[in-house]
Specification:
5-stranded mixed sheet; 30 strands; globular
Length: 361
């Protein structure tokens, strides 16, 4: 895998003259409004402008990368912060930088936050209880107890729950057992669900089909992939699952993006990577963004699927590259990631609209 280091000057050189003239190197960048907690700086490696979105006086965490937490309809995102003394859910307005707490929580699972499809409600796990929070009124209601995981469909009636290792639908019907991993992803359209089992330090991805009504289809769960695998994502059409696979070559384990087809169960490599520890696809899965675990080059990297070429967009310098969890905005114009590069975990944003074709959000 050949990596390309794209500097701001290199990007400008590739732009049409009229567009390049609008962003001539040396011309002072327009300062961000001095509101909220936004801090803008130039990345040391690529000179790309990066924005730190949250304060360094507390810990701020993004949800699981596969969860919906960046709005496709309005400019806001959801995150967890311990700025009140314990972790609680917050809403960040990306226009104004305003941060607003959405609910009080006792023992929040910070990575569990997930918006529903309408973006009117937030779902989360607090003290083992699945809760729904209205984003407009901030009213809260409890949906289920003793929950360790959940997957979102189009609404509360399409929820899937994990309780005591059992995968259940909203009516309490058991769909699968021995669900031991954190990954639980509803297939686009609600036709089935991917879940995870942990075995001897490795992982297994399983798929169980379902009826449109939410009940069991009568078919057994199917093993899709096993081994050193992580970060599963459904393809846009729901026909396959994309994920990272560690591939040993001698004494070194390389990281590759693989894809497994649901109907046939066949697995195929999509692209090698520069040691991605975490990754996610954009909305049409034409571009991937990953966080490299390389000690010499701890970067956030774009990977063009068709060309299998990489572009470094900025450094992350996180103590754990997997926790960086970079994700695209729904329209693919920005990348959001998490890093403790400056002490405590903070949230960051970088604009990639000159490098990635926008997608319909």
């Amino acid at each position: 895998m050949k990596e390309i280091r794209i500097t701001r000057r290199a990007v400008l050189a590739a732009l049409p003259a009229g567009l390049a003239a609008a962003v001539i190197p040396g011309r002072k960048a327009k300062e961000l409004p001095r509101v909220g907690e936004f801090v803008r700086f130039a990345d040391p490696t690529t000179e790309t402008p990066v924005v730190r979105l949250t304060s360094l006086s507390n810990s701020n965490l993004f949800p699981c990368p596969a969860n919906r937490f960046v709005s496709a309809r309005d400019r806001f995102l959801i995150f967890s912060s311990d700025r009140t003394g314990v972790f609680a859910p917050f809403r960040l307005d990306l226009r104004t930088g305003m941060v607003r707490q959405l609910a009080d929580t006792a023992k929040l699972e910070p990575r569990s936050l997930c918006l529903d499809e309408t973006e009117r409600s937030l779902f989360l796990l607090d003290s083992g209880e699945l809760r729904e929070i209205s984003l407009s009124s901030r009213g809260t209601r409890a949906l289920a107890k003793d929950v360790t995981g959940f997957a979102m469909g189009r609404g509360p009636s399409d929820l899937l729950l994990v309780r005591e290792g059992r995968l259940e639908d909203a009516n309490g019907t058991i769909i699968a057992t021995d669900v031991t991993g954190p990954c639980l992803l509803m297939r686009p359209g609600g036709e089935g669900c991917l879940f995870e089992r942990k075995t001897s330090g490795n992982a297994e991805f399983w798929y169980v089909p379902m009826r449109d009504s939410g009940g069991v289809s009568g078919k057994k769960s199917t093993l899709l992939a096993q081994g050193n695998i992580s970060f599963p994502f459904w393809s846009p059409d729901g026909g396959s699952v994309l994920f990272l696979r560690g591939v040993p070559r001698g004494d070194v384990t390389f990281s590759e993006i693989h894809e497994v087809l649901i109907e046939s169960g066949s697995e195929r490599p999509v692209s090698p990577t520069s040691q991605f520890a975490a990754f996610s696809p954009n909305r049409d899965a034409s571009v991937f963004v990953g966080s490299s675990r390389s000690k010499a080059q701890p970067n956030v990297v774009l990977l063009l699927r068709s060309a299998q070429r990489e572009m470094t967009i900025c450094e992350h310098h996180a103590s754990d590259a997997a926790s960086v969890g970079p994700v695209f905005a729904p329209d693919s114009r920005r990348v959001y990631f998490e890093s403790d590069r400056e002490g405590k975990p903070a949230l960051y944003s970088v604009n990639v609209e000159l490098l990635v074709e926008p997608t319909q959000s």
